[in-house]
Amino acid sequence: MPDVNNTLKRLRSHYRLVIMNEDTFEEVVKFKLTRMGVYIVLSTVFILMVGLTASLIIFTPLKYYLPGTGMGNAKQIKEYRQLKIRTDSMEQALKYQDNYLKNIQKVLQGNVKELDTNRIVLPKVENSND
């Protein structure tokens, strides 16, 4: 089991971050840091970014562009379903009408294929008026 005091010591130990100019070795910026401070700053930045992103999606019209979110209230969902059903039925009717017109055009042009059927030979019916 790791020593808790040793871990706390490492988290509170001070470190120096120095940014230097490579050509002149002049110190440009220096920071005094602790591991705990770095963890706290990074965690805070992460939480702020998540919160900002969530609020941006929730409180702006962006939610309408994400699938499965922000479809609106129940009335809008019902209208959407009705429009979807209506559109599907109109597409089906358009297919039937197009097929009907193509068949009429074939008949008028004489491009009707002979049907692959057999004639049924029916026996003659005798009229008995006797």
Task: Please explain how this structure is put together.
- It is a single chain.
- 54% of the residues lie in helices and 12% in strands.
- With 130 residues, the chain is mainly α.
- It has helices spanning 4-12, 35-59, 74-109; strands spanning 14-20, 27-34.
- It is rod-shaped.
- It folds into 2 domains: 1-70, no CATH class; 72-111.
- The chain contains 3 helices and 2 strands; from the N terminus they run H-E-E-H-H.
- A two-stranded antiparallel sheet has the order 1-2.
- The model has no long low-confidence stretch (mean pLDDT 85).
- The longest helix has 36 residues, at 74-109.
Compute the number of helices: 3
Number of domains: 2
State the low-pLDDT regions, or none.
none
- Helical residues, percent: 40-55%
Short description:
54% of the residues lie in helices and 12% in strands. It has three helices and two strands. Strands 1-2 form a two-stranded antiparallel sheet.
Topology (SSEs and partners):
Blueprint: H1 4-12, E1 14-20, E2 27-34, H2 35-59, H3 74-109
Antiparallel strand pairs: 1-2
Tag the structure with descriptive keywords.
single chain; 2 domains; 3 helices; mainly alpha; two-stranded antiparallel ribbon
